[in-house]
User: Which sequence fits this backbone?
């Protein structure tokens, strides 16, 4: 039998937060078999540039992950009111216990997010190009519509003149 991989996708967290706004730190941890009962827990750690070690991070956090379940597939949190002191390395640590018929299997996973804090939103090049292309498309389609309207008006006017000549 061939090895089968999980169908879950672990989405990367954004890495750039804007000063004074909120920010979602994403942490998705999939299990290979959905039908297996499990429980899990998530802990977040933080290390600033000045710190030597990671420490448990609790300040200004709001849970933004899985709800109403004991198996937390999404361990994301939301940081309120980002400051420059929030820049650094974050670690999401997930412990999961899978319950099989005759035994329990314990596993863990870690995900790291290096967060930078900027004073204002930095727009990506693709966003700027997309906006410019939208305006170009709008102008082009408006011009095409104008040309079509003039063409149809001339065609209708010519048909009307032809009908008047036939009646005369």
Assistant:
């Amino acid at each position: 039998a061939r090895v089968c991989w999980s169908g879950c996708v672990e989405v990367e967290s954004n890495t750039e937060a804007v000063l004074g706004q909120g920010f979602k730190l994403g942490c998705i941890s999939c299990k290979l078999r959905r039908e297996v009962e499990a429980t899990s827990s998530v802990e977040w750690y933080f290390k600033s540039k000045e710190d030597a070690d990671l420490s448990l991070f609790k300040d200004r956090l709001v849970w933004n992950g899985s709800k109403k379940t004991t198996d937390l597939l999404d361990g994301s949190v939301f940081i309120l009111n980002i400051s420059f002191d929030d820049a650094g390395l974050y670690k999401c640590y997930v412990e999961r216990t899978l319950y099989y018929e005759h035994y329990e299997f314990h596993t863990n996973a870690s995900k790291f997010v290096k967060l930078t804090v900027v004073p204002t939103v930095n727009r990506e090049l693709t966003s700027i190009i997309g906006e410019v292309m939208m305006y170009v498309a709008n102008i082009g389609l408006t011009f095409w519509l104008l040309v079509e309207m003039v063409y149809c008006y001339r065609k209708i006017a010519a048909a009307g003149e032809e009908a008047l000549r036939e009646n005369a």
Observations:
- The chain is about 25% helix and 30% strand.
